[in-house]
Write a structure and sequence with these properties.
The protein has 508 residues and is α/β, with parallel strands linked by helices. Helix content is 30%, strand content 21%. The chain has a domain at 73-181: Diaminopimelate Epimerase, Chain A, domain 1, CATH 3.10.310.70. Helix 9 crosses helix 10 (330-343) and helix 14 (421-430) runs antiparallel to helix 16 (483-491). Keywords: Hydrolase.
Length: 508
């Protein structure tokens, strides 16, 4: 592992109290990294033979940033897919795809794939017939922006052995189809090319680690990535229920190193998708959705019942695995909390988009973090106002979670939102576009809190991981300004250096 001495950097205080009083000046100091860890922090650290030095020139130093929820291969694939995120309805989506097909050659796989549409507010819902009217000459697959449904034409339904339907393929039926999409000729090569670009971009944003909750056996993918010389990023990799028994048989536990990865990849949690999503209108809620026309159940629905979830979580816990339970609706969050309580399992609830106030007391007594993606709020406000107008004050309830002492970890769920922790932090601080109003500002957090929720619990002190980023400006410098200006300042952040495991991977 490379060693490094950072000179003249100012360590951002992540644990101080926020107030309107002027902050005490932060004096420059040195940070010595040895064998992949912070060895010493202090002024005038003696130079050592063979250890390179970087002069920070008074720049601001933070532990490296983490994105706690990413689907890395899917994020890499977005670059090769038609962007349908701007679609406002069925006809608009079809026009976007038509224009792209006229402009671009057919992919090597022979399948046209788009990604990003969100149907919760569309007057007309997607149908196979509508997509067939565009073309039946080639298979077309349009993946929703929440990744919980696929809109396929008839050739694609046949090619990918999808269930017969006249509408979209959603939830568990869709996840199986998505796996088959990844097996098409050239799909894996295209994905990995995209991953390399995505990881390089992540380094420039100060990202040193991700929790990769991709389907399949991502630990094998990450081992190959390290062999292929992919950009240096740490990873925790999850496993899904279908792979649980095989993983348990290996004896691997959460936190164990994945061999052949230079010590940078570790096994993460069991991931269980316990309900659906807001935009596909499959999130499981205590009260019914508004505008529930066409829904089989206006409350949404669980993907797994309490007994099944308890069995999975209990088996994983007994085998030394943490658990990450996807729960977007408040009924799903409640079920997950009750299962964590009954099994004694450790881990997190992924998304926690809608939470009942009455469930926070139980949550505060459990070793269960809230893994939240604040940038989803920017995409979902209109849908939440339409579908959950009577409960918007308890959506993305970051303030309520922190005030109860519940650990919060921020992420993106890329490709659902961009792999950009500064965007996530800006949304957590302002809860709206920087040039717009703050939406339910009572649930906002401070910049200092957002930063602390983005560094994987690390602080720049001896014994910490040797992951450091240097910023040109003080990220707390706008803390006394309106939240929109604070968010804008976060989005303008310039990362002048990123260090992973003692190695300078971005910056001069």
């Amino acid at each position: 592992m490379p060693d490094l001495l950072l000179r003249h950097v100012r360590v951002v205080p992540l644990d101080g109290a926020d107030s309107d009083a002027p902050a005490r000046p932060v004096e420059p100091t040195d940070v010595l990294l040895l064998d992949g860890s912070v060895a010493e922090v202090g002024r005038g650290i003696a130079a050592r033979d063979g250890i390179p030095e970087v002069d920070g020139a008074g720049r601001w130093a933070l532990p490296g940033l983490w994105d706690h929820h990413v689907h890395v291969a899917q994020w890499g694939l977005t670059r090769s897919r038609i962007d349908t995120s701007a679609a406002t309805g069925v006809e608009h989506a079809l026009q976007i795809v038509r224009d792209a097909m006229d402009r671009e050659p057919l992919p090597r796989s022979g399948v046209v794939v788009g990604y990003g549409h969100r149907t919760a507010t569309w007057a007309e819902q997607p149908s196979v017939a509508a997509l067939d009217a565009l073309t039946t000459a080639v298979p077309v697959v349009l993946i929703s922006g929440d990744a919980h449904h696929g809109w396929l034409n008839s050739p694609a339904l046949r090619l990918l052995d999808a269930p017969a339907t006249t509408a979209v393929v959603e939830e568990w039926d869709w996840f199986g189809v998505y796996d088959r999409l990844a097996e098409l000729p050239g799909a894996r090569e295209v994905a990995e090319d995209g991953v390399a670009v995505a990881l390089r971009e992540a380094q420039t944003r100060g990202v040193v680690g991700v929790t990769d909750l991709e389907f399949g056996r991502p630990w094998e993918q990450w081992r190959q990535r390290k062999l292929d010389g992919m950009p240096l990023v740490r990873a925790r990799v999850g496993v899904y229920p279908e792979g649980l028994d095989d993983l348990v048989a290996t004896g691997l536990r959460t936190g164990d190193l994945v061999t052949g990865t230079r010590g940078l990849v570790r096994l993460g949690p069991l991931k269980v998708i316990s309900d659906g999503s807001l935009n596909t209108r499959t999130a499981w809620c205590c009260e019914p959705f508004h505008h529930a026309e066409g829904m089989a159940d206006p409350h949404g629905a669980p993907n797994i019942d309490a007994a099944g979830l308890a069995d999975l979580v209990g088996r994983a816990h007994a085998a030394g695995l943490e658990c990450a339970v996807h729960a977007i609706g408040d009924a799903a969050v409640r079920q997950a909390l009750e299962v964590f309580a009954s099994t004694g399992a450790v881990g997190g609830i992924e998304h926690a988009q809608l939470v009942a106030e009455s469930d926070l007391e139980l949550w505060s007594r459990l070793p269960v973090r809230a893994s939240v993606q604040p940038a989803h709020l920017l995409d979902d406000v209109v849908a939440m106002e339409r579908l959950w107008p009577d409960r918007t004050g308890r959506t993305f309830p970051l303030r309520s979670l922190l005030d109860r002492g519940i650990e919060v970890a921020l992420g993106s769920d890329a490709p659902v939102s961009p792999l950009d922790p500064w965007l996530a932090m800006a949304a957590a601080v302002h809860r709206g576009p920087v040039d717009g109003e703050s939406w339910h500002a009572e649930q906002a957090v401070t910049v200092r809190e957002a930063l602390a929720c983005s560094v994987d619990g690390q602080r720049l002190r001896p014994g910490a991981r040797g992951d450091v980023i240097l910023l040109d400006d003080d990220p707390l410098g706008a803390a006394d300004r309106p939240t929109g200006e604070q968010a804008a300042a976060l989005l303008r952040t310039v990362i002048s250096a990123t260090v992973v495991d003692g190695e300078l991977v971005h910056g001069a």
